[in-house]
Structure formats: structure tokens, C-alpha cells
Amino acid sequence: MKQTRDENADAAHPLDTAMDEELARRAAELLTAWVSTSTPLTESQGWTIIGLQHMGSAQGEMYAWGKLGTWEQQLTAVLAADDGSEESGHRVREAKRAATSDMRDMLLAGIPSGERTNRIWRNGLGPDPREELRRFVEKHAEQEA
Predict the structure, then answer these.
(1) What is the largest CA-CA distance in the chain?
(2) How far apart are CA 12 and CA 15, in angstroms?
(3) CB-based contact 82:94 (threshold 8 Å)
(4) How far apart are CA 103 and CA 108, in angstroms?
(5) What is the 3-class SS of the chain, one letter each residue?
(6) 82-137 pLDDT, tens digit each
(7) pTM of structure
């Protein structure tokens, strides 16, 4: 389903909601796989995730760091409680599904935020947030394989 952006956006690049959702979902799956009970997210990984959200300000980044910390803690708590039982396995699968969904939503929100930041601060010449997500997925999907 194609949509066009509001009149303040560059209408030469129509939105493709399904493509955006798929791209954000795939990136979210890769990011969720970074979380483990033995190793917390590194600062570099955190900045990568924050960068993909395109917060546009220091205050926005602080907010995103808070959400990221909560997201990681919630998933890590369920992973740590995994006792190998079928019920525990179900809780882990559900927690990973919820974490992926939450991260997808954070990344989807970053697309219009990145476009807006690009227009305001970079005269439209900054990086395309969709292209940044594509590069992230390509790079990390190769490493995962």
C-alpha cells in the first residue's frame, strides 16, 4: 500500500508502509538477537540502535537510551529465567517476539524522524533513514549467516 507524505515532505519518494515495516522488522530481529544473559549490549551496539532511531536531539537520545535499557532489561530477565522447560521456552519465544515487535516500532518511528531531521538540519542532503536500515540489515544478516 503506497502512501504519500505530508506536504512538508519530499513527495518524490512515496512511502511504502509494507516495505518500511518489513525492513524495520528484519532489523529488529537482528537487534533482538544481540541480547543475551551473558553479555549486555555494548556501548557501540547501543549507539547503533539509537542512531537507527534518528532522535534528532540530545534530549531525544536520552529518552531513546532509557527505552533501550528497559527493552534490554525486560528481555534479559526472561532469558535469565529460562530453565529449559517447555513452559519456559514458550515464555522466551513470547518475550523475543514482543521485544522484536517493540524494536520494530522504535525503528519505524525513526524513519519519519530521520526524514524530518534531514530536512531541517541537513537541507535534505543527509542520509536516508531507510537506506541506513537497509545497510544495517545487509551487513548484520551477512554476519549472522
Answers:
(1) 55
(2) 10
(3) no
(4) 8
(5) CEECCCCCCCCCCCEEHHHHHHHHHHHHHHHHHCCCCCCCCCHHHHHHHHHHHCCCCHHHHHHHHHHHHHHHHHHHHHHHCCCCCHHHHHHHHHHHHHHHHHHHHHHHHHHHHHHHHHHHHHCCCCCCHHHHHHHHHHHHHHHHC
(6) 999 999 999 999 999 999 999 999 999 999 988 888 777 767 777 789 999 999 99
(7) 0.83
Rounded-to-integer distance, Cα 92 and Cα 36, Å: 12
Q: How far is CA 140 from CA 1, 43, 90, 143, in A?
A: 28, 17, 26, 5
Distance (Å, rounded) from C-alpha 112 to C-alpha 13? 12
Could you tell me the three cell numbers for 28? 529488529
Where do we find the cell 517493540? Answer: 102
Nearest to 101 by CA among 18, 1, 21: 21
| Set of cell numbers at residue 74 | 525486560
